[in-house]
Amino acid sequence: MLFGPPGAGKGTQAARLSERLRVPAISTGDIFRANIAGGTELGRKVVAYTSRGALVPDELTDALVRDRLARPDAEAGFLLDGYPRNVAQVEALDAMLADAGTPLDAVVEITADPEAVVDRLLKRAAIERRVDDTEDVIRHRLDVYADQTAPIAKVYADRGLLVQVDGIGDLDEVTERLVRAISPALAH
After folding, report:
1. Would you identify the CATH topology of the domain 2-186?
2. I need a surface site. Which of 10, 16, 26, 103 has the fewest CB within 10 A?
3. 187, exposed or middle or buried, with CB in 10 Å at 0-12, 13-18, 19+?
4. Whether 130 is catalytic
């Protein structure tokens, strides 16, 4: 599982790790964006939250993740990208994994300097034309992250699963840091 502040590089690194580990990367953000782009009912519900920098309600997110984890390609393993985002979602994930008999091998917090994140997201917004990435919304999302998501680090640290990796730097360097950080957990 990967988590970290918006713009820390979770999506990019999840795709790289997914390819390397030969498991699907499951990103709630990607699922949400696909529904927004497709104009689905879910997409309209999601954009009502994301356009103002708020998180999508847990019950909606949990249901999407439960459905995705049940697909055949996730049977041999998976990489969660940006989920869970709060302690309630940790509990929901615990229940899903218990039902499936699948424990987490490792939880990686990708860390990043907040100002570097703001710069990175503003550049991404310009390139990808993301309407949800204005500076005010980005800063609000960072505040929401600090308030709601950062506390899950303690939950997973207490379980002995947490490793932290700096997400700033050359893409290949960050990928290698991640691989080194999770390798001990995958060896068992």
Report:
1. Rossmann fold (3.40.50)
2. 103
3. exposed
4. yes
Instruction: Classify burial at 145, counting beta carbons within 10 Å of its beta carbon; exposed 0-12, middle 13-18, buried 19 or more.
Output: buried
Measured at the alpha carbon of residue 172, what is the angle toward residues 1 and 118, in degrees to the nearest 5? 70
Portion of the chain with pLDDT greater than 90, in percent: 63
123 is catalytic: no
Domain ranges of the chain: 2-186
Q: Rounded mean pLDDT of 66-88?
A: 91
Could you say which of 16, 33, 68, 85 is catalytic? 85
- pLDDT over threshold 70, residue 188: no
Counting DSSP H helices and E strands in the chain, the numbers are: 9, 5
- The answer to whether residue 177 scores a pLDDT higher than 80 is yes
Asked if 124 is an active-site residue, the reply is: yes
